[in-house]
Amino acid sequence: ATCRHGCKYGECMGPNKCKCFPGFTGKTCNQDLNECGLKPRPCEHRCMNTHGSYKCYCLNGYMLMPDGTCASSRTCAMVNCQYGCEELKGQVQCLCPSGGLQLGPNGRTCIDIDECSTGKAVCSHNRRCVNTFGSFYCKCQLGYELKYTSGHYNCVDVNECVTNTHRCNLHAECLNTQGSFQCKCKQGFRGSGFDCA
Question: Are 33 and 63 in contact (CB under 8 A)?
């Protein structure tokens, strides 16, 4: 079977028919499924959608059990955690629902880790890192767009001269470059290419 547009997070099952991996949806399985919006909801108290998955967390005074339910806990209620807690060997520890969050100095609230500035996030060629609360994603660099070519998704150069998104002067030629473009005044004109006289 061939899927002309590919299956980003899934596999091709029939002519242009994708079977998405859990946590993804769409014709080419390129969209994250928001499990928190499903009925019935997957979490008893609170739900945080993540890329391809989700995390459950509990209201203050409850702790997250291994099966995803929230159990009342007197000790958790006393600690006053932002996202629920766990008890380990009689010690109460507040939890953060994502690896992209860390406990703040007070040990109760969670603060975001900027994976882009700490260098934890590695984005492939022609992609830039965008930080989100609790996570990050990789986006095509400016001057590039996401396209499905030779069996996978790539960030390919946008030819501004062809798409007519350049700002060259009427009396200038547009020259495409990787991720950008240049303007050169035509013969008989002088200037920057954006201004020609």
Answer: no
Query: 182 pairs with which residues across the strands?
Result: 175
**Which residues pair with residue 12 across a beta bridge?**
18
Task: Give the global pTM.
Answer: 0.51
Do residues 177 and 142 lie in contact, with contact meaning Cβ atoms separated by under 8 Å? no
**Tokens standing for 144?**
């590039």
Secondary structure (3-state) at 79: helix
Amino acid at 153: Y
The CATH number that applies at residue 188 is: 2.10.25.10
Assigned domain for 107 exists: yes
7 in a structural domain: no
Domain that holds residue 51: 36-112
> Tokens 């600690």 identify what position?
79
pLDDT band per the 50, 70, 90 thresholds, residue 183: very high
Query: Is the per-residue pLDDT at 97 higher than 70?
Result: yes
Question: 3-class secondary structure for 20-66?
Answer: ECCCEECCCCCEECCHHHCCCCCCCCEEEEECCEEEEECCCCEEECC
Burial 124-161 (b: 16+ CB within 10 A, else e): eebbebebeebbbbbebbebbeeebeeeeebbebbebb
